[in-house]
Amino acid sequence: MRVGRIQNYRSWSPWMVPDPDTACVGLEYFCFRGDDLWTMSDDELVALATRELAELGLATPEKVRRGHVVRVPLAYPMYDAEYAERVEKIRDWLDPIEGLVQVGRNGLHRYNNSDHSMLSAMRAVDNLVAGTDHDIWAVNVESAYHEEETDADAQQPYKKVPTTALEAELKEMSEAA
Question: How much is the pTM?
Answer without folding.
Answer: 0.59
